[in-house]
Amino acid sequence: QLQASGGGLVQAGGSLRLSCAASGRTVRRYVMGWFRQAPGKERAIVAAISQTPGTEYYTDSVKGRFTISRDNDKNTVYLQMNSLKSGDTAVYYCAAGGGYNLRTVHFWGQGTQVTVSS
Fold it and tell me: In angstroms, rounded to a whole number, what is the distance separating the alpha carbons of residues 111 and 36?
């Protein structure tokens, strides 16, 4: 089970840090990442990180603003979101799977709402 937390309401330009803790299984062998889904849009990858931290993927719209990290000892992945924009408003989902940009998802966490007010 993947448990996401850290969402909320923030003003444009602000920051939030999302966390995703895994329980019941180790996620050490999986690529981990975050997707988001805005109203009326499809769920899309935001960021992903390799099993051993070192390779990261970011969608173009968040490069330079978001940072993904993981702590395998804590079975947790993080998404630090800075300089937030209204366009970042969405439900954010953590995921575990494989592939450079999490092309294959094996497990989904529940969503956490991020709302950026302008």
Answer: 8
pLDDT by position in tens, the chain (length 118): 899 999 999 999 999 999 999 988 788 899 999 999 999 999 999 999 999 877 999 999 999 999 999 999 999 999 999 999 999 999 999 999 999 899 999 999 999 999 999 8
Q: Which of 25, 14, 17 is nearest to 69 (CA)?
A: 17
Amino acid letter, 78: Y
Round to the nearest angstrom and report the end-to-end CA distance of the chain. Answer: 34
Alpha-carbon distances, residue 65 vs 23, 46, 81 (angstroms): 29, 11, 6
